[in-house]
Amino acid sequence: MSFSVTILGCASAKPTANRHPSAQAVNIHEQYYLVDAGEGVQQQLIRAGINPLKLRAVFLSHLHGDHLYGLFPLLSTLGLYGRCTPLPVYAPAPFGEMLAAHLRFLDRELPYTVEWHEVDTTQHALLMENRTLEVWSIPLRHRVPCAGVLFREKEPPLNVDKFKITKYGLSIAQIAAAKRGEAVTLANGETLPNEELTYRPYRPRAYAYLSDTNFSARAAELCRGVDLMYHEATYAAAEQRSARERGHSTTADAAKAALKAGAGRLVIGHYSSRYKDEQVLVDEARALFPETYPATEGHTFTIEKQR
Predict the structure, then answer these.
(1) For residue 149, what pLDDT is reported?
(2) Which member of 36, 66, 227, 253 is catalytic?
(3) Could you tell me if residue 307 is inside a domain?
(4) Taking the model in full, what pTM does it have?
(5) Cis peptide leading into residue 73 (ω within 30°)
(6) Which domain does 108 fall in, by range?
């Protein structure tokens, strides 16, 4: 049961020679989700070995160009690839107007439907769910309406210990009852508590993507206990004033958010073009939160299963 995040872009708005704008691919149980779509995202997907046809949904944190300019070419390419199934896109308003203009002038005959779902960036709300996953919005503090994305696995079904099946001679009906979380009564009248027979195969995992934002204690709290957190760190700690005025965060802000959330690991990105080497930013964040890593393009962060 895979759970991983591949970095496709880590730059902020100004172009650089060796960084692409914000984009990530989240793989949960071999179902792929695109989070933000900066310029060149379709090429970055291919470089990472991810077939764009595998995308189940797209989540746009906000409507600044460095987070969405790559989406429209991707929509066209998916048509050329022959996609037939609808593609849900979760984004703030007025994304629908942008999408309508693109479809009107450039992609009138796509073989699939692009389904826009409006995100209320002021609310912590369930955006999408399936049998194994929930995706939630996280309100952020930027210059325009902006929301992060929280991916949480649902609690997996109970497994019955095979040794206990043999030990107690459990029937198919008793095994089914145990999987439902029930106690089991044996033929001799003995009742076995459910925890004697079952176990969770793994602990549910979680990933939080906190895009362009000032530090937000509320956002960090909503991400409580995540295994992996991405938090923008556009500026070094000394540039706190610039960060505050422009709706961004410093390395210290990102580390503080990870600490407040009790995150397992922190990934920082959205680097300003003034920083030719992001290691200085990583080192600053590590001084406060040691488990900090750079959002290096092409790198995949895996969240392993734990009992």
Answers:
(1) 98
(2) 66
(3) no
(4) 0.94
(5) no
(6) 3-156+200-302
